[in-house]
Amino acid sequence: MFFTVLGPVGLTVAGRTHVLRRAQTRGLLAFMLLRANRVVPAEALIEALWGGAEPRTARSQVQNGMSAVRAQLRAHGGEGMLSSGPAGYLLTVAAEQVDHALFELRRREARASAGWSPAGAAAALRAGLELWRGPVLGGASGSYVEPARARLLDRYLTAREEFVELELRLGRHGEVAAEFLAAVDEHPGRERLRGQVMLALYRSGRQVEALRLYREHRVRLAEGHGLDPGPELVALHQAILENDPTLLTPGAPGAAAGEGGAGPARPARHQRRRTGRARPPAGR
């Protein structure tokens, strides 16, 4: 039995995928999977589903939903996986049975081996990234879904950047440019990835394209938010303009937290706010 939350919420048994009928029940299952092997109080489930605006029937709806989850598990050989008591509900599963837990396991394996086996680390990370089938938490309902989806997506994007760093260390510059150039526009705020792809393009002899990636980003930031790119991206851009020879070696300027390891991404820190430009969108 294998559970998925990094895509449509469901479970797979013997190659066949099963999906719970109601979106709210799928939301309950996904919430339990994200907190697997921990007791989850009924109050936490109510808050997760309704965000403080629960109906009078909330507790009974949770009980009915959990009964539906338990029945689905029992039907596929998962008797006893979901238990309940005065403290709440407990879903007992192994990391290898849940895609998001397996993803984190592969990511830890990659970080542990990155220093001595970047090829092995890259393979482990790619295996983890392939577990993402999107849209994350697909088909689940509940107040917690959108915030949880955003957190999971950030983990995915960070791990993808860690993978790209490893690929650059392995000299796979053309492969990086081909595979991730489109992703730069899909997530324009990820300056780390933009810098990595700029570096891959430059190392592939595509300096003009690398400079265009920077220019487009700078214009977008200036016109949309009144900001400049972050200092690491600025440094990389300058180094590309100057054909800095250190760009051809690991640890090049702007290579997004250094190519010497697959450490966690640092948030982009933009420079001073420009004057006379458009204001940031409301709510920022």
Task: Explain this structure.
The chain is mainly α and 284 residues long. The chain has helices at residues 23-34, 42-50, 58-75, 99-113, 118-129, 145-169, 173-186, 191-203, 207-225, 231-241; strands spanning 2-4, 10-13, 16-18, 82-85, 88-91. It is built from 10 helices and 5 strands, in the order βββαααββααααααα. The strands form 2 sheets. It has a 3-stranded antiparallel beta sheet.
What percentage of residues falls in helices of 4 or more residues?
A: 40-55%
Give me the oligomer status: single chain
Radius of gyration, rounded? Answer: 22 Å
Number of helices: 10
DSSP summary, beta strand count = 5
Class inferred from helices and paired strands: mainly alpha
| Terminal CA distance | 43 Å
- Shape descriptor: elongated
Output mean pLDDT.
Answer: 89
- The SSE string, one letter per element, is EEEHHHEEHHHHHHH
Report the sheet with the most strands, covering strand number, pairing sense and barrel closure: 3 strands, antiparallel
Low-confidence stretches: 253-284
If strands are numbered along the chain, what order do they take across the biggest sheet?
1-2-3
What is the percentage of strand-forming residues? 5-15%
What is shown here, in short?
This protein is mainly α and 284 residues long. Helix content is 52%, strand content 6%.
